[in-house]
Amino acid sequence: MNNTGQKHVKGVRIRSLNITMFVLSLILFIAVFWTTLRVAQDYNETVQATENYIAWEKSAHQIHVASDYLTEEARLYTQTLNIEHALNYLDELFASQSREKALEFISSRDIKPEFRANLEKAIEYSNALTHKEIYAIRLVAEGLGQDMAAMPGVVQTTSLSAADQALSPEDKFKHARDLMFNSDYAKAKKKIVDALSRFLSQTLTETRQEQIAQTQQLGNMLSAQRIALIGLFLLNAVTFMMIIVLIVRPLQIYAKCIKDDKMFELVGAYEFKHLALTYNDIFAVKEHHDRMLRHKAEHDPLTGLLNRAAFDSLKQLLANEPNPVGLLLVDVDKFKDINDSYGHIMGDKTLCRVAWLLQHAFRTDDFCIRLGGDEFAVIVKGNPPGLEEIIMAKITSINENLKNPAEGLPPTSLSVGVAFSNGGFTDDLYSHADKALYRVKEAGRCGCAFYRAEEDDKQS
Known about the structure:
about 450 residues, alpha+beta, five-stranded mixed beta sheet, 17 helices, flat, disordered N terminus
């Protein structure tokens, strides 16, 4: 371009050159001005698409939280017969209305007819489920002999069937619990979640596509602006330096932040700082979701302990550990009898109690794991002198606690097999611990045994 300028200088008077440079400068200035307007417009549209995306996700979360809260309070009322839970339920349903407000917000948006059908199904299923919950509340209230005049109008106007009206108080309680915990309730709950999930998946996908399209358009306009800025640099070095500081440098920093998976730095012009703040909000939401997904993938939802997948990962991770590694395989004795005699809810509480005792008995850097069902494991690193006696004492203490339970839990005990490797998590460590566990069960359960190679040789 400099060579072209020199040719023009040779054939043009200074006046003509000035006019030419002025015209070129004016054209470039108009180009920069136009691209700047377009960048601002595309940026605003990108921000709007981003805000819509965040709003959809927040509304979805609010609906799930409110729906679970209503279910929990209604179930607690049928279980505990505490009127506070019924009042909490009705207060959320008719006063706070978190779920309804979120649905109202979603309904107020411009939604395609094919998307709205799933939303309307979710609302329809939700209303039907709410009627069942209020019916259960009426059953409990009548079973308790509460004054219906003191109950909210929606409970007063809910009529029991003749068969339910004739039930005894205990049978009314039982029927109310059955309504809240039976498979029909779970299926109805799932239908709401499925319909809402389909709706949100469609709308969030469309919003995300709109966001991507606006971002791409913004990138295209920024590229066009950079081309115009290069031309202005040849005419005015000072202007170019200002553009570098306010636009190009922030873009380079943002590109590096994206590559390094970091939040944007607040640099450059106002628009870029605003864009950085918006990006950082999205980044924070993404990081939170990633942490939640990692936690769900590695932890057992009932007990909160590490799960089988985490156990397999630890085996690989500790395979090259130079120090000894110990493995405890733990079985809850006669757990099937607990489920059969006391029910699965009490069985789950027993498993949670076992998990809690294991976590509090062992060190924070030991790994407590639920392998599945009533099977647990503990991985310990190192094998200092006296560790076997410590483990034996811990298991004995836990078994004493489980055999004399509190909070209405059924008595039980643990059978534990323990094995140590010379270094790392070896291939035969699990089988050794399992053989030790088998010896405990053969001896009548409720105890702890350590794998000894010499004993294994005698048996074989």
